[in-house]
Amino acid sequence: MRKLKIVIVDDHEFFRTGIRMAINGFDYCKIIGEATNGMELLKLLEHHQPDIILMDIKMPLMNGCEATREALKRFPDLKIIALSMYGDEEHLQSMIDAGAKGFLLKNIRTDDLDRALNAVADGKSYYSEEFLEFFTKRFSSKPEDEELFQALTKRELEILQYIVDGYSNKEIANKLFISIRTVTNHRANINSKTGVNNTAKLIAFAIRHNLVHYK
Fold first, then answer.
1. Could you tell me the residue range of the domain that residue 19 belongs to?
2. Which residues fall within 8 angstroms of residue 19, CB to CB, at 6 or more apart?
3. pTM reported for the whole predicted model
4. What contacts 198, CB < 8 A, 6 or more positions away?
5. CA 78, CA 9: separation in Å to the nearest integer?
6. Is residue 24 over pLDDT 80?
7. Cα 51 versus chain centre, distance
8. pLDDT for the residue 212
9. pLDDT at residue 142 tops 50
């Protein structure tokens, strides 16, 4: 079985050691490199092609947002999961805008890391529950966007909810007993109506505008 190739980017050796130990316990992963900042990551990518990068945000020389943007510019198929401390929730949107597929707290449990890696490898987005709660709390005082609700059909809102819940197109199709092509068409319509063309950004957008609920 082909193993997921992982790169860890963080300027704290103690944290990298902990993540390394956790990942080494997963039989479907292997760590192919580590870096202490964005500049080192970009040099590493000249010789190694990971499937997933675990990316710290606050680093010297080149931070996680800058490194994410540049890495994806050079290698668009990379999947990046941001790593953050408590109190860094404000960086969530900037990392999403940069192209990150997930956002994890640094005090994550091993099972959370396991779920995140599997979800992102499967093409889904993954966020620590605390960060989705941050969105709902931060924008709970905002009214629902009535224009968007009127623009989106009942089926589109239903599919949007499944997207936020982390389901793939195939899984959504199975849930709703429709074809994958139909799901793809609905997602294209959702993207057009919301003006968002990235799954991670769409999740943030949906929560921010109270278009979905998060359990």
1. 4-136
2. 8, 10, 54, 113
3. 0.72
4. 96, 99
5. 14
6. yes
7. 14
8. 77
9. no
State whether 120 and 188 are in the same domain.
Answer: no
Q: Mark whether 153 and 93 lie in a shared domain.
A: no
Residues 88-121 pLDDT 10s: 556 777 787 788 888 888 888 898 899 899 989 9
Single out the residue of 26, 134, 7 nearest to residue 81, CA to CA: 7
- Statement to judge: residues 172 and 122 lie in one domain: no
What's the rounded Cα separation, in Å, for the pair 140 and 145?
12
Matching residue, tokens 């390394």: 20
- Please count the structural domains in the chain: 2
CATH of the domain at 197: 1.10.10.10
Tell me the CB-side half-sphere exposure of residue 24, using CA atoms within 13 A: 7
67 occurs within a structural domain: yes
